[in-house]
User: Which sequence fits this backbone?
């Protein structure tokens, strides 16, 4: 929310219309709670009062440390080189992806 108001300030915006965030499935953040918290906070601020929140859930993936292929999180060996050296990537982030202002 602080980040949002700062952004609006920088752009001389009078209102924030849409806020898009991506939340990783492993982040421990529950989209519903996040959304509720957002609405509560947004309602207290004239800049964000009208803002609609759009949440995208992102799935974690794995990167093969041998051939750099990005593979599905459920696989145990790399589909390309059969390596078992897979490193989890993503899925734990909370990222502000887009903000529309007026
Ligand atoms: Zn591989």
Assistant:
């Amino acid at each position: 929310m602080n980040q949002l108001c700062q952004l609006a300030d920088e752009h001389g915006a009078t209102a924030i219309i849409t806020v898009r965030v991506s939340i990783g499935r492993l982040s421990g953040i529950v989209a519903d709670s996040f959304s509720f918290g957002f609405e509560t906070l947004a309602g207290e601020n004239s800049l964000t009062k009208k803002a609609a929140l759009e949440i995208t859930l992102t799935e974690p993936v794995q990167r093969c440390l041998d051939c750099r292929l990005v593979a599905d999180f459920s696989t145990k060996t790399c589909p390309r080189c059969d390596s078992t050296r897979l490193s989890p990537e993503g899925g734990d982030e909370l990222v502000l992806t887009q903000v529309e202002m007026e």
Summary: Residues 2-101 form a domain with the hypothetical protein PF0899 fold fold (CATH 3.30.2320.80). The helical segments are 2-10, 31-43. DSSP finds two helices and six strands in the chain. The chain has one domain: 2-101.
